[in-house]
Design brief:
Layout: E1 2-6, H1 12-15, E2 16-20, E3 30-40, H2 42-49, E4 62-63, E5 67-75, E6 87-91, E7 100-104, E8 108-110, H3 117-138, E9 145-149, H4 154-165, E10 169-174, H5 179-185, E11 189-192, H6 198-201, E12 206-211, H7 218-225, E13 226-234, E14 246-250, H8 259-269, E15 277-282, H9 285-296, E16 303-307
Parallel strand pairs: 9-10, 9-12, 10-11, 12-13, 13-14, 15-16
Antiparallel strand pairs: 1-2, 1-4, 3-5, 3-7, 3-16, 5-6, 6-8
Helix pairs in contact: 3-4, 3-8
Domain Enoyl reductase (ER): 10-306
Organism: Enterococcus hulanensis
InterPro entries: ADH-like_C, ADH-like_N, ER, GroES-like_sf, NAD(P)-bd_dom_sf, Zinc-ADH_QOR/CCCR
Length: 310
């Protein structure tokens, strides 16, 4: 079985390798999936670079990847919600960079027939973030007007659509080149951060501000946009100088959040959601290396997907 792994921490071209691995056994609670596509995520980049080594110990060679989609080829005796032959969406602890993966049954759901392999694989992590942030972290406290910073990114774009599906007024910011995309996703108002001051443009208008950017100056603008006493949620670092009274929250994965619940919600909304795909690359080591290098730079809006042919 072909898989793509890292042999150490370092640059993509130096540490990503192709390996042959023995298939894992499937116990009563697990499912084997032949993968058709997997996504490359920023978290994979951080793992490869060693940025997570203080929190997570890796045994090399380590197969990266949390998000994938494919066909069930074997099920454990306790699994009843999927069967052999079903097309499924997968969220794994690791190991989706390969031809197959074995995961707990609670980590997969059936893929809607109309959903492409690329969209199914690419939506997993950004959807889990968007859904759990809105549904569980904030819940009824979110308010009626929400600002999404970084609205053209994978998480930001799904946030815009999910919030609109809930009837919220959505304010959004992204670069000028992505304005058409963000407006098409349903944003009620838009500010291009590289053309105008989004903080001044939307000052004191949002019940909740969600900073889905990579950090930097967005925090300052976000605090300006948040109403006094509102919510400020960051996917990166919270502003160090919290100048306005509010509820400041960092969002991260939690064992309290159910993947099965969130992914089931995704399948229910999939016909209303658009995931921007930046590029689909073939199932080769060169593609995986290229995908990592693209994501490290300044990629176009959208996900990078590795897809098998056939």
């Amino acid at each position: 079985m072909k898989r793509f792994a890292i042999k150490d921490y370092g640059a993509a071209k130096d540490v990503l390798i192709e390996i042959e691995a023995e298939p894992r056994l499937v116990d009563d609670t697990h499912v084997r999936v032949e993968l058709k596509a997997f996504a490359i995520n920023p978290y994979d980049i951080a793992l490869r670079q060693g940025a997570m080594r203080d929190f997570r110990t890796l045994k090399f060679p380590y197969v990266l990847g949390n998000d994938g989609a494919g066909i069930v080829t074997e099920v454990g005796s306790e699994i009843t919600h999927v069967k052999v032959g079903d097309e499924v969406i997968v969220h794994a602890v690791g190991g989706t960079y390969g031809e197959e993966v074995v995961v707990p049954g609670k980590k997969i759901v059936k893929k809607p027939a109309f959903m492409t392999w690329e969209a199914a694989a690419g939506a997993v992590t950004p959807w889990l973030t968007a859904y759990n942030l809105v549904t569980h972290l904030l819940g009824d406290k979110i308010g009626e007007t929400v600002m999404v910073q970084g609205a053209s990114g994978a998480v930001g774009s799904l946030l815009v659509q999910y919030l609109k599906a809930q009837g919220k007024t959505v304010l959004a910011s992204a670069s000028k080149r992505n304005e058409e995309l963000v407006r098409q996703l349903g944003a009620d108002q838009f500010a291009a951060y590289d053309v105008e001051d989004a903080g001044s443009f939307f000052a004191d208008q949002a019940d909740t501000v969600i900073d889905a950017t990579k950090g930097g100056r967005a925090g300052e603008a976000g605090m300006q946009i948040m109403k006094a006493g509102g919510n400020f949620v960051a996917l990166n670092d919270l502003p160090s100088d919290q100048k306005k009274t509010g509820n400041y929250l960092s969002f991260g994965p939690s064992e309290d959040y159910s993947d099965f619940e969130a992914l089931t919600a995704l399948t229910g909304l999939a016909d209303k959601l658009q995931l921007t795909i930046a590029e689909v690359l073939p199932f080769t080591l060169a593609s995986v290396i290229a995908g990592h290098e693209k994501l490290e730079g300044h990629p176009s809006a959208g996900k990078i997907i590795i897809k098998k042919v056939g």
